[in-house]
Amino acid sequence: MFKNLIITCLFGVTAVILGAFGAHALKESLAPDQLQSFETAVRYQMYHTIILLFINIYEGFSIKQKNTVSYLFFAGILLFSGSIYLIHLTSITAKSIWFITPLGGLFFIIGWVSMIIIFVKKMRNK
């Protein structure tokens, strides 16, 4: 469990650092639509970091459930946000890794659906 929380905190601190970097250092070098895309990556990373904190401190989830949802969101952050960061911070083009960003989004969706299933099962067992 602490491993998940440590990884979550690392995602949180990098979201803050990258958000500040985007707001200050990239403002002059990226076009407005590129900066908006970068900000979307930071936002999605932070949203899912906050949810990861909830998941991993919520006592209603088993360790297996925490790990399953955490790993889905970890993959989503790395693939969705990570691919957008790569596109805007390196010479990698969106054309070369176009499939990675939506794959990350799919991991986010599967993570959310997994939580819905967990909560529905808990509701039925009460």
TrEMBL record:
Localisation per UniProt entry: Membrane
Which UniProt keywords are present, listed alphabetically?
Answer: Membrane, Transmembrane, Transmembrane helix
Report the protein name in the record.
Answer: DUF423 domain-containing protein
State the GO CC annotations.
plasma membrane
From the broadest rank down, the organism's phylogenetic lineage runs: Bacteria, Pseudomonadati, Bacteroidota, Flavobacteriia, Flavobacteriales
Q: Which Pfam families match?
A: DUF423 (PF04241)
The record's similarity note reads: Belongs to the UPF0382 family.
Q: Does the keyword Transmembrane helix apply?
A: yes
Q: How does it sit in the membrane?
A: Multi-pass membrane protein
Membrane-traversing stretches: 41-58, 70-91, 97-120
Keyword Coiled coil applies: no
